[in-house]
Structure prediction request, 346 residues.
Amino acid sequence: MEFAMTRRRLTFVLIVFLTCWSIVPGARSSQQDRPFSIYIAVWRGCEEACKGFQDYFREEGIDADFIVRDAKRDKAKLTEFVREARELKVDLVVTWGTSVTVGMIGRLADSNPDKHLTDIPVVFMIVADPVGAGIIESYASSGRPNITGTRNRVPEEVQMRAIRAYRYFKRLGIIYNTNELNSVLNVGKIRNLAKKMRFVLFERNIDLDENGKPIPESIPQKIKELKDRNVAFIYVGSSSFLMRHMDYLTSSAIDQGVAIVSAYEAMASKSNALLAVASRYYSVGKLAGFQAKSILIDTHPPIALPILSLSRYSYVINMETARKLKLYPPIKVLRYAEVVHGQQQK
Prediction:
């Protein structure tokens, strides 16, 4: 009798387990019967993170077909991406950046199954502040059954302390783009840090045209206005627009005798910013690949996976810019910094 009851309990537990496993979006046996189909939606081409994600799968020997779609900075295309991913019945979707992620999965408060992906596992990457953007509940768990991802931004306080290690400042300028949510959120965090770390923050946002699009030609004037405030540095924390125009931005700053410091590694290594304290996009892409493997191979539900970040950051100094501005780094910083000499090949 006792044996029969034990068998019934075990059978019940097994049925519950298999039922729960089967309703996890995208759950599938780790024994592949075909290549995984992975849909990668990017904002401005398949750059380092996109390539890092794919390289992770190749290095791990995981058979996968990658479908890469480029929004080309056009939010209107994201609705079509959602429709296509569903029609193709892909195993997983990867979203690049805040705009793409919000457009394809929505926010916690407004996610709509008719408009957003709620039935396919999604791994987001290169989202600077997913909690602040309202995409997830916390870094411990997205709070959403089909969502997990990575965060790439080095914490703002870490950045400010790293910049002060190069040269102590009491006045800091910041340039940002008001029509990018991640850029606005970043400014808010720097404002709070200004009070905590006792420095004065001077803000300038890029001018917008009649259609609400940022005007690149307004950049030199914003730099001049900040220079007139005697800022030690001009900080660029988060903006796809400013990244796209990084050569114009950093060269304009040098022409006016001001140093750009950035949360984007490429601004120092591939352009003319003085300093970058950043997570490398390629490494973030590989980290997102690890998240995808945890879903597709290890069959973990996305909601059970914490939002991951890199444990090490890059501290990049452009010595040619340092020479032009006569802002040479202290010896103690050179012990751990990565030094580049001038603008690198893109």
Notes: The chain has two domains: 29-152+282-304, 156-278+313-340. The first helix runs from residue 2 to 23.
